[in-house]
Design a protein that fits this description.
This protein has about 475 residues and is α/β, with parallel strands linked by helices. The protein contains 15 helices and 16 strands. Strand 13, helix 14 and strand 14 form a beta-alpha-beta unit. The structure holds 6-O-phosphono-beta-D-glucopyranose. The site of 6-O-phosphono-beta-D-glucopyranose has 12 residues, from loops.
Amino acid sequence: MKFPKAFLWGAALSNVQAEGGYLEDGKGLNVYDTLEVDFENGQSTLSDTSVAADHYHHYKEDIALMKEMGFTAYRFSIVWSRIHPLGDDGKTNEAGLAYYEDMIDELLKAGIEPVVSLVHFDMPDHLRIQYNGFMDRHVVDFYADHVAVIAKRFKNKVKYWITYNEMNTILFGPRVIAGACRPEGMGDAQFHAILTHHTQLAHAKAVLAIKKENPEAMVSGMEAYSSIYPLTCHPEDVQAARFVDNISNNLTFDIMVNGEYPNYYLTYLKKRGVHFDIPQKELETIKSASKMLDFLAFSYYLSSTVASPKGVRDPMEIQNRLLMGKQGREANPYVKTNEWGWQIDPMGLRYALDKLYERYHKPLFIVENGIGIDDKLTEDHKVYDDERIAYYQGHIKNMGDAMELDGVEILGYLAWSPIDFLSSHKEMRKRYGFVFVDRYDDGTGTLARYKKKSFYWYKKVIASQGEDLSNLEKTVY
Ligand code: BG6
């Protein structure tokens, strides 16, 4: 289908995973820099954030490549520890602000709408060590102060803002998502409840800070949406899938959009004896922010299939085991996976769009969608990533169907990602870019940029407003 003229096309990147330059120009270490990953071969932290894709020094070249692809929007993140290296001392690093200002100017010059994410795995490490991150209310205020500085500086240049990356995944990766680790003796439900509330409050305060500077700004929170299916039509599997869907997908936006905690969650906590006494003022902040939300941003990579845990009869125990997918995730026999076991399900994107729109009636913005592949560079510097093209073909087609056949309102589509970078587990080998970055997990590589086949394909898609999804003839690349 031909998408509307105003539809935003582009891609997204998390700067902390791409920049490198991790101690340059006054930047402080953050939770991702210090994340140690043990790979199977026993090595840890293979590709480190001191270099990553060296986007810190290549951003002009990278933006020129985005312009060449015809992007009309680009989502990136302003690294918290580059602006406020420690985070709690009120000291702002002007060099950090100047760096992102230049990036924004470069985008505007290229005719690309900046979409700014405010926290994407980049909390100052100091806040993790001293406060246990978002487990501590003080960190919510540090974050709000940080956002106020950024909103003030860029109010006339940035229209689209995303307050917090994938805040629904806090139990999967509390360290990088929220700078937190579970205090000893605390159960999953309590840990989840505290982090949920503090990140919602942080989001709400960010919305208010941005709107204070510019009431015309377009603001959203953001979550990772994975379409959830029951493994079978057995009522127990259906019930299990409904529970996982509520906690993983619905809860974050239910609070954000309605400005209150849904009854299913309050009941869930009460049944587990979780003390959840929130000050009235904080609830009011969440309520006020909910009235200012302009759209809903989400990432979509895969769908998940859920079955009720075998042999467990107690309904509460079933929920405990299902919480955030600890048990009950099963392989879907109808879809393929990539090398990392992520289920490739283009129609799941349509399902996500339909469900989100039916539930919230807000314009949607797909701000991440892509596939990790161990791309190989040929001797003549080419990458034949037809698998990536096939992935995108399916997802864009289904996005069109959601719009055209189901009446879903969609603002734009941002692929993940313009260039290769370190995965959330710091793996360079898991590549997502339209542009190959010559950098490897052993620290070698020239950092040169090479256009993959998908680069030219996506360029064609954008030029045709999403109408021409056909793969390229062999001779074109
Ligand atoms: C999203 C994150 O969860 O998924 C990104 O917002 C991340 O930062 C992306 O890179 C893909 O996940 P991974 O683990 O393959 O990097």
